[in-house]
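We emphasize that the prediction below concerns an isolated chain of 294 residues; any contacts that depend on oligomerization or on bound cofactors are therefore not represented. The input was used exactly as deposited, without trimming of termini.
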Amino acid sequence: MTHIPTLAIYGAGKVGKTLGRLWVDRKLVSLADVVCQSRDSAQQAVAFIGAGTARSSSESLHLADIWLITCPDDSIEQAAKKIAADAALPNNGLLLHCSGNSSSQALGTFGSAASVHPVHSFANPETSLAQFSGSYCTAEGDEAALKLAKHLFTAIGGQWLAINAAAKPCYHAATVTASNHLVTLLDQAVRLAQKAGLNEAQSRALLKPLAQNALDNLFNHGGRASLTGPISRGDTETVASHLGALAHLSDASQDRDLYHALARATLDIAETQAQPPGRLSALKALLRIKPAQT
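Result of the prediction step, given as a token string:
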């Protein structure tokens, strides 16, 4: 009979509760302790998962084959030290955290260590139980830890991707840009459309298909092939009119600065496209000017 490893979860928030429930339901692990700052929080996690013993982080920890650490990034190292100090991990045990930014090195040298970041929104654990399958899981760590971690995550439908531990902050910046910063950018677009007399609902309806089409083109063909619009055409007068309009909006200095920065970055993509000689020269000169001077 195959040995089912024991699992303990340290910091069982939305991520810990969801993964714990998925693994327990599929009988991939036997859940031991669920550790949170307060026993009440741990009991709520145990109730959701349907297994385990609720404990507070101030109590002594029990031995488990796998420790899943899903507390905030700045507490990962402290959690690993606590597990080591309580001798709660066997010599061949696995220490695992799910941070998108911190590498497995945050776990120290207390055991076989890996970091696996599920690229999934865990806003609602109940919803995540049904929707997790198919999510990408980016991973790095030592070989033995990755072998076990890969088994756990792919068994619940995760798509496994290996990443470079040293460049993990760049990877995390990519995910933030593609999600959080995209919200910021499209929020700006909706607000600017309202300046032209559209209401918020109309602005969203107008911009949604445009944004979706741009995303489809980008992910299917790449930035160079997908970029269109005034900067790609070298239309300096149009870009200048945008900057001028934003400069005269009393409440839009941040929008102006963001537009200017994005225009300069967009120009870099335009330069990789096949352009007639000198087509972008006037645009380059315009965009070298600081926003306050436009």
